[in-house]
Amino acid sequence: MNQPASAYFIEDRHDPNETHTLSVLVQNEPGVLARVIGLFSGRGYNIESLTVSETESQKHLSRITIVTTGTPMVIEQIKHQLDRMIPVYRVVDMTLTKRSIERELAMVKVRGEGEHRVEALRLADAFRARVIDATTESFVFEITGNTDKINQFIDLMRPLGLVEVSRTGVAAIGRGPEGM
Amino acid sequence: MSDKSHDPNQMTGAAMIVRALIDHGVTDIFGYPGGAVLPIYDEIFQQSEVQHILVRHEQGAGHAAEGYARSTGKPGVALVTSGPGATNMVTPLTDALMDSIPLVCISGQVPTHLIGNDAFQECDTVGITRPCTKHNWLVRDVNDLAKVLHEAFYVATSGRPGPVLVDVPKDVQFATGTYHPPRKSDVHRSYAPRVKGDATQIRKAVSLLANAKRPVIYSGGGVINSGPEATKLLRELVEVTGIPITSTLMGLGAYPASGKNWLGMLGMHGTYEANMTMHDCDVMLCVGARFDDRITGRVDAFSPGSKKIHIDIDPSSINKNIRVDVPIIGDCGNILGDILQVFKAEAKKPDIKAWWQQIAQWRARNSLYYKKSNDVILPQHAIQSLFEATRGKDTYITTEVGQHQMWAAQFFGFEEPHRWMTSGGLGTMGYGLPAAIGVQVAHPDSLVIDIAGDASVQMTMQEMSTAVQYELPIKIFILNNQYMGMVRQWQQLLHGNRLSHSYSEALPDFVKLAEAYGGVGIQVHKPGDLDGAIQEMISVKRPVLFDCRVAALENCFPMIPSGKAHNEMLLPEQANDEATAKAFAGGKALV
């Protein structure tokens, strides 16, 4: 690459991007989520999905699950940058463990009549989605699964009268008897 | 009355702050009062253990605290009010974060019930300073204050040091609660920086060093931060292995400039021999440095043939810019000790005679050459003269940012750590004068000199008033070329010599300015008068503005042009117009 006139060294990096799911165990205290999100925006990292909730209220521990993309070098940086934050206990790259289960939940509102309505119900059944609200002209389906499955379901609902979707983002946990 | 009223640990939040400072051995703080910190100032007034230095702008307090910290190895402390007081601290906090300087900033905040109401002098201090501190806290309950203050000191000074901020609302300063002295449980359980290096990695490192044909040690500010033991061990390692050593801007003084293995500073304005050694080495030992972009030059051509060992206390420094072969996470001093021990027990000095011969050839290029003149003072000559005049004296140097900073790094030889205070990572113009104040407070009897530029020094010039008030005899040695020299240099090299706003048409008369502040002004034009004027400056026991008029158009070489590697340096004798144009050829796109 031709270097333009600049006080900085310009370089192209062509490493392919990877998608990784990170589980981050943090002290649940004011501002902790802002710190984590600020790190991502401040250093130009991507957040594809973010899920956060207190998981052990007595110990004030929260678990943050982040799906992010980047080159292997950037992913490694993200983990180290997270790990050195004061309220962060542990960072586990669930993708690297290759032994993790990832799930998200979506609520999908579909509006339609006649054949479309029947087809929506039939597909929902095939995807093991539950009806959690119904009117004569609409359904709200609840579906859980990995991101691909939910995307697929939403795509199928689109021509059948998809109105809106609310998703939780990805939660992840390792297989087997050990905790993170 | 309850028993609690006699409990000596019952006190107001404001009193806790002063008490915590005393418990952490703080003797000097830098600050500026305002509405939201008045209770703390009232406590300061009623005691004598902590001396408060009143600055003229909060940025000055921050840099003074940094200078204090860098020159002592102890944390620097700044105290500022809410709103503008806190926002004025953003630059020093960021500066300290970039250069890993332990800094504890206490800021006042509007009363808890007004937070979020856009109250007078309110700002979201913890929000604003979150990305520019290692950690920060807003204390809403006076009973949390002691714990937070103790944790703040621990976080600032442990692991990779850095700035922290504790934001204390005014009602919390007034409220009474229970204080406790520092204890281990004050610190987050999630915070446990690693100190000891991995033994297997250390063995790998020793084996690489012992079998190297062309090794180099590249050390940085981490060695200085680690403490005197690390410096000692680094020197011993160089001695025991016979390996050449270079250092970053931040690391100057860890290995003495007069040492026989010293190559000079590396990087964009480093010496030819240091950069060539880095480029051609087969084993590189990086100790407490972070492969910053001013150091590496073009990343994909950085030291292509070497095995790289990287010692750093911060795991995020590893593989950030440059892939390394043997990362060792932990404290520099601790790991250098382990490496030395293993090396002495199991390895022999590598045979690197041929490597030293090669280095001697690079050295013979004399990359710091400049042409002296009898008519006009060359800035390099001014710094060499200053260095000669202060040799053997108990001297501390601070700098501003720009050409003068690079010349100071090139031409002033540092024999000891903690003697060189400069804004490396952030590159903060205006750092040096207040930093010199901090250094002088810590070392009242030492000679403290800010090597300055005429542009930088005006950014925090008002702190001359602080120096005069506290009788701090700092010497501001201004290399006055009337330009923002480094900006102009880049404009000459990259922007067709269009000198857009890099010339100061209306500089103050620095001599009169010094006198207006109650200090001493000295001006010198002629090379022949320089030494005498420097002697005069040193002998004056008051703050001095030294207006050293230097060659206006001198530029800083050698230099690695943008997009080039370490072995493509532009040397001073090549830096004619044609060669420069060629080295920087590449179009006008700006990034």
What's the layout of helices and strands?
The complex is a heterodimer of chains A (180) and B (591).
Chain A: E1 18-27, H1 32-42, E2 49-56, E3 61-70, H2 72-83, E4 88-93, H3 94-97, E5 100-111, H4 115-126, E6 130-135, E7 138-145, H5 147-157, E8 162-167, E9 171-174
Antiparallel strand pairs in A: 1-3, 1-4, 2-3, 5-7, 5-8, 5-9, 6-7
Chain B: E1 10-12, H1 13-23, E2 28-31, H2 38-45, E3 51-54, H3 58-72, E4 76-80, H4 84-87, H5 90-99, E5 103-109, H6 125-129, E6 135-138, H7 142-157, E7 163-169, H8 170-174, E8 176-178, H9 199-210, E9 215-219, H10 221-226, H11 228-241, E10 245-247, E11 262-265, H12 272-280, E12 283-287, H13 293-296, E13 307-312, E14 326-329, H14 332-346, H15 353-363, H16 379-390, E15 395-399, H17 403-411, E16 420-421, H18 432-442, E17 447-453, H19 464-469, E18 475-480, H20 485-494, H21 510-517, E19 520-524, H22 527-539, E20 544-549, H23 577-583
Parallel strand pairs in B: 2-3, 2-4, 4-5, 5-7, 6-7, 9-10, 9-12, 10-11, 12-13, 13-14, 15-16, 15-17, 17-18, 18-20, 19-20
Antiparallel strand pairs in B: 1-8
Helix pairs in contact in B: 1-2, 1-7, 3-5, 3-18, 9-14, 11-14, 12-15, 16-17, 16-22
Helix content of chain B: 25-40%
Number of strands of chain B: 20
User: Helix/strand/pairing class of chain B, anyone?
Assistant: alpha/beta
In terms of DSSP E residues, the strand content of chain A is 35-45%
Mean pLDDT of chain B, to the nearest integer, reads 95
Task: Kindly estimate the percentage of residues of chain B that lie in beta strands according to DSSP.
Answer: 15-25%
Task: Provide a descriptive summary of the structure in words.
The complex is a heterodimer of chains A (180) and B (591). Chain A is α+β, with helices and mostly antiparallel strands and 180 residues long. Chain A contains 5 helices and 9 strands. In chain A, the strands form 2 sheets. In chain A, strands 5, 6, 7, 8 and 9 form a 5-stranded antiparallel sheet that branches. A 4-stranded antiparallel sheet of chain A has the order 2-3-1-4. Chain B has 591 residues and is of the alpha/beta class. Helix content of chain B is 37%, strand content 16%. Chain B contains 23 helices and 20 strands. In chain B, the strands form 4 sheets. A 6-stranded parallel sheet of chain B has the order 3-2-4-5-7-6, with helices on both faces. A 6-stranded parallel sheet of chain B has the order 11-10-9-12-13-14, with helices on both faces. In chain B, helix 7 (142-157) links the parallel strand 6 and strand 7. Chain B starts with 9 loop residues before the first strand and ends in an 8-residue tail after the last helix. In chain B, 56% of the residues are buried. Residues 586-591 of chain B have low confidence and may be disordered. At the A-B interface, helix 1 and helix 2 of A face loops of B.
